[in-house]
């Protein structure tokens, strides 16, 4: 499975230090984070809030540990802020990632998002885009896709809990209304299962658009409690709704089989935001790496 080095395996720093909840892992240094990534057998990373933004400084630290940058998150506000404001911020982000050797840019629309609101119930108050907001989103993503292409890069859209593109229907609409040459898809197992979607259905339907993969597992008992107790997304994270592959309810074997059969070429990034005081990030990174090896041969 996954022959000829078609797939690279990375892990996100969010298990060590959380961008949305800085108090989680606040004491963990950048150096500890990337050293433990390398020690647990990964060769890539996404960019966290403690990473140096000077490309030469970051390159040196990563090179010492045999790591590359796979991508980094960009918060778009295409439905709520002027397009030119989005473009200006995006160009700086693109240029940084290009300098770091990344080929894809993770984009998620944060207009009306509730993912960063501590007290807002995740399922009861999920945002739904109006027709005019859909038009702004599609047109804006096309512009960002063109700007990424100037550097030979792609944007990969991150469907995400608490945003206007979370469900299967919303992903389907986004893919139907955007140009495949300008907008690709980030496939995230954990966000699909947490939302109540069928991850294999989404994978098969949009395989030709998927150019980046987040491997995230779900503790289903916590996911049920989030609905029942009307928790927010951040409360769900603090309560441990997400975990690494092999530690939750998702069977990743068919996910790997479908991606292999389709000839997927790109990054798999383990991403499981947890409280590091409850889930030791190095221990869970090792657990994820072993599970991926067992299930995929990588």
TrEMBL record:
Q: Which UniProt keywords apply?
A: Cobalt, Lyase, Manganese
* Gene giving rise to this polypeptide: iolE
Listed GO MF terms: myo-inosose-2 dehydratase activity
| Source organism (scientific name) | Fictibacillus terranigra
HAMAP family attached to this UniProt entry? IolE
Xylose isomerase-like TIM barrel domain residues are: 40-294
State the similarity comment.
Belongs to the IolE/MocC family.
EC number(s): the record gives 4.2.1.44
This protein's pathway: Polyol metabolism; myo-inositol degradation into acetyl-CoA; acetyl-CoA from myo-inositol: step 2/7
Name it. Inosose dehydratase
Q: What is the lineage of its organism?
A: Bacteria, Bacillati, Bacillota, Bacilli, Bacillales
Q: Which cofactor does it need?
A: glutathione; Co(2+); Mn(2+)
| Reaction(s) the record says it catalyses | scyllo-inosose = 3D-3,5/4-trihydroxycyclohexane-1,2-dione + H2O
Which InterPro entries does this one have? IolE (IPR023952), IolE/MocC (IPR030823), IolE/XylAMocC-like (IPR050312), Xyl_isomerase-like_sf (IPR036237), Xyl_isomerase-like_TIM-brl (IPR013022)
């Amino acid at each position: 499975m996954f022959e000829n080095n078609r797939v690279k395996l990375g892990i996100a720093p969010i298990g060590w230090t959380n961008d949305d909840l800085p108090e989680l892992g606040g004491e963990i240094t950048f150096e500890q984070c990337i050293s433990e990534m390398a020690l647990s057998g990964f060769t890539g990373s996404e960019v966290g809030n403690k990473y140096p933004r000077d490309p030469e400084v970051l390159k040196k630290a990563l090179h010492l540990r045999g790591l590359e940058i796979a991508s980094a998150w960009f918060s778009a506000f295409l439905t709520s802020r002027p397009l030119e404001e989005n473009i200006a911020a995006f160009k700086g982000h693109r240029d940084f990632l290009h300098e770091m050797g990344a080929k894809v840019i993770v984009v998620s629309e944060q207009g009306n998002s509730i993912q960063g609101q501590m007290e807002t119930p995740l399922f009861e108050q999920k945002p739904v885009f109006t027709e005019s907001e859909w038009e702004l989103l599609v047109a804006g993503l096309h512009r960002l896709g063109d700007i990424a292409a100037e550097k030979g890069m792609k944007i990969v859209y991150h469907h995400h809990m608490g945003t206007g593109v979370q469900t299967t229907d919303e992903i389907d609409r986004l893919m139907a209304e955007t140009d495949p040459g300008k907008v690709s898809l980030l496939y995230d197992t954990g966000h699909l299962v947490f939302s109540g979607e069928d991850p294999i259905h989404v994978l098969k339907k949009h395989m030709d658009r998927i150019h980046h993969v987040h491997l995230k597992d779900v503790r289903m008992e916590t996911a049920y409690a989030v609905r029942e107790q009307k928790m927010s997304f951040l409360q769900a994270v603090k309560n441990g709704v997400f975990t690494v592959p092999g530690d939750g309810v998702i069977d990743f074997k068919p996910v790997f089989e479908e991606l292999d059969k389709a000839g997927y070429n790109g990054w798999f990034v383990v991403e499981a935001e947890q409280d590091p005081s409850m889930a030791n990030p190095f221990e869970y990174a090792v657990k994820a790496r072993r599970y991926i090896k067992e299930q995929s041969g990588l």
